[in-house]
Design a protein that fits this description.
Layout (H helix, E strand, L loop, with lengths): L11 E6 L15 H14 L8 E6 L10 E5 L3 E4 L3 H13 L16
Parallel strand pairs: 1-2
Antiparallel strand pairs: 1-3, 3-4
Bound molecules: FE2/S2 (inorganic) cluster.
FE2/S2 (inorganic) cluster binds next to loops.
Protein name: 2Fe-2S ferredoxin
InterPro entries: Thioredoxin-like_sf
Amino acid sequence: MSDPGSNSYYKRHIFFCLNERANGEACCAQHNAQQAFERCKAQVKAQGLAGPGQVRVNKSGCLDRCAAGPVAVVYPEAVWYSYVDEHDIDEIVESHLKNGRVVERLLTPPHLGR
Ligand code: FES
């Protein structure tokens, strides 16, 4: 069977949950998810990684792993990250999005869901 990622339009695609809940329940928007998303987009662009055959950065609604938030997920590897600050975002860009090396220290604990 061929590599399912081999004919992907993007080499890697990262989605940031930007969901905000008005009722005070935990949500990624409470943890500066918007800034992290913008930082990631800017870094990917600045490093010349953006575009077809390369990297795409998108916002998403709730990914249903709010307890681990703020979260982002990278495909095709389906690797989930729980990040804290811009330093973490820069590391994800440099290590994973650019060089394909998973950032182990930021991995979302597998049992954490909603
Ligand atoms: S609010 Fe971000 S995963 Fe649910």
